[in-house]
Amino acid sequence: MSSNLPKVAWIGLGIMGSPMAENLIKAGYDVTGHTLEQAKVDRLVAAGGKGAASVAEAVRDADVVVTMVPASPQVEAIAYGPDGILENVRSGALLIDMSSITPQTSVDLAAAAKDKGVRVLDAPVSGGEAGAIEAVLSIMVGGEQADFDAARPLLEALGRTIVLCGPHGSGQTVKAANQLIVAVNVQACAEAVVFLEKSGVDLAAALDVLNGGLAGSTVLTRKKDNFLKRDFAPGFRIDLHHKDMGIVTDAARTVGAALPVGAVVAQLVASLRAQGDGGLDHSALLRSVERLSGSQV
User: Fold this and answer.
1) Which residue in 54, 77, 83, 165 has its CB near the most CB atoms, within 10 A?
2) What is the DSSP letter of 276?
3) Closest CA to 218 of 185, 245, 266
């Protein structure tokens, strides 16, 4: 391990967090992890990291704390309170929250951390599980330029496109826009799949040629096999996309931006979740279109 690299505490070792933390270990960082499931901590230890029994223990000696948890309530739970990050991390540490949460939560966290002498960046990501494993994530960052510059070498071990988007909360705003685009794109692909199949066309051939033209997209590239095989093992769960569509529709209302198509897709995501498909990958929007088209799913 290189002694000159910052010591990292990683909180949240889920579908995204585990491979990301492992990529930091591969890059030579000393990583101590904590998450709610012991098996996930064991996986980090097996990859060369250290385990911690609590948030407080994980962050005590850290130079950088990275958090990757599902939503705003979880960020608040690990950040605040006597056992939280801000009470236990040393002054001068850098907190990089890579969760996808409301922009306001990020703004509030940065203000609370400043009182403790802790620097904060909101740095949500796009690219899904595959992007996390391959370390090719797109990372949209909100915060101060100096803190972004300090974090950049670490972020480069996790992603390929790393951009400072503006002050605190800006990363979350751009992530919300990302989730809007992705959801509408997945929905459009799902509708095309059902249309093609009902028309009797060779679906694999059709998706290949569509992906080579203007209709092609990263979404179609990444999700083509999900559609073809009806494989909805979660790379990004409907439950989380439901949360994100709530964030973008709420934030858009606050600033006075209309999202007519986004609002419809938000409702389709919500209905899919209500039908018990919340644990499936967001490509399972295909199931919603199939139901609407009269198929038994």
Assistant:
1) 165
2) I
3) 185
